[in-house]
Design goal:
This protein is mainly beta. It has one helix and five strands; from the N terminus they run βαββββ. The radius of gyration is 12 Å and the shape is globular.
Length: 85
């Protein structure tokens, strides 16, 4: 099974993430560093949530048919774009 990967830079304030807890949003929409649009179920970011929100660069690995295999925070900082719900 082949895997693909993308790097996304996330700057998601806690107030915006609360929309998922309130049932107002189910997915986070963002753009990868190579320009591809990514729609990720919000619950995948929960492990990275702090009181400030979710911030940082993340490596997403997924199957050829789009199923998420792993999501990990990368070291260092990259340019962050605010994802939307």
């Amino acid at each position: 099974m082949s895997q693909e990967q993308l790097i996304v830079d996330v700057a998601l304030p806690a107030e915006r993430y609360l929309a998922w807890y309130r049932g107002q949003a189910g997915r986070v929409l963002m753009v990868s560093r190579d320009g591809r649009r990514v729609s990720l179920p919000a619950h995948h970011l929960r492990a990275f949530l702090t009181h400030e929100g979710v911030y940082g660069s993340f490596l997403m690995r997924f199957t050829a048919d789009g199923k998420l295999v792993s999501l990990e925070r990368l070291g260092g900082e990259g340019p962050c774009s605010a994802p939307s719900f």
